[in-house]
Amino acid sequence: MLKRIYLSLRWRIWYVINKSKFKHLGTKSFIHKPLSIEGIKNISVGNNVYVAYKTWLAAMPHTGFKDCELIIGDGCKIGNFNHIYATKSIIFGNNVLTADKVYISDNLHSYEDISIPILHQPVKQIGTVTIGENSWIGENVCIMGANIGKHCVIGANSVVIKDIPDYCVAVGTPANVIKQYCFQTNTWIKTN
User: Fold this and answer.
1) Residue 170's domain spans which residues?
2) Helices of type H across the chain
3) In the chain, which end has fewer C-beta atoms inside a 10 angstrom radius, N or C?
């Protein structure tokens, strides 16, 4: 009982201290001991969002887009040690769940010029990222410049570099759809 009261009080204090720092911070949302938050004025967090331990959130316009944004929808649960870095736009729909150690980015380091160390080459935009509502992103998944539809499952250790449609299960490196929900039979059907 005392632990519950302590956590509730801690979350409320955190919310009051941080509400004005974000572009938007919804009610009953909490970020637990973040590793880093960069570009906090470009980050919008919905209601009832929980971001677990040591996650890195960033919305920094390193690729020149003035309106850089990271939007996390209502009810999202983000796992431990996630790394979510937007240079243009990453948007989570409502009720997205991520496991631990997930990497999501809309950009890459340039590497084309072999006369310059990669560290000193510019960051390049590779697309935007949208994760549809009610989707689940498994452990160690990397999503780079690709969109994921609503109510999708992305299997552990997958690398998503192309768009995944709504109501699909995708796995692998690179991720491929292995199942899709069939509304006629109300079942998940294996794809060829």
Assistant:
1) 2-190
2) 2-18
3) C
Looking up residue 76, the CATH number of its domain turns out to be 2.160.10.10
Sort 82 into a burial class: Cβ within 10 Å, 0-12 / 13-18 / 19+.
buried
Residues 132, 90: contact at Cβ < 8 Å?
no
Taking the C-alpha atoms of residue 81 and residue 47, their distance in angstroms, rounded to an integer, is 21
> How far, in Å, CA of 190 to CA of 192, rounded?
7
Q: pLDDT in tens for each of the 192 residues of the chain?
A: 788 887 788 888 989 999 999 999 999 999 999 999 999 999 999 999 999 999 999 999 999 888 999 999 999 999 999 999 999 999 999 999 999 999 999 999 999 999 999 999 999 999 999 999 999 999 999 999 999 999 999 999 999 999 999 999 999 999 999 999 999 999 999 997
Residue indicated by tokens 């768009």: 163
- Sheet of strand 142-144: strand arrangement: 36-38, 56-59, 83-86, 103-105, 142-144, 159-160
Nearest CA-CA partner of 139 in 82, 180, 56: 82
> What is the chain's Cα-based Rg?
18
Count the Cβ atoms, other than its own, within 10 Å of residue 139: 14
Q: How many domains does the chain have?
A: 1
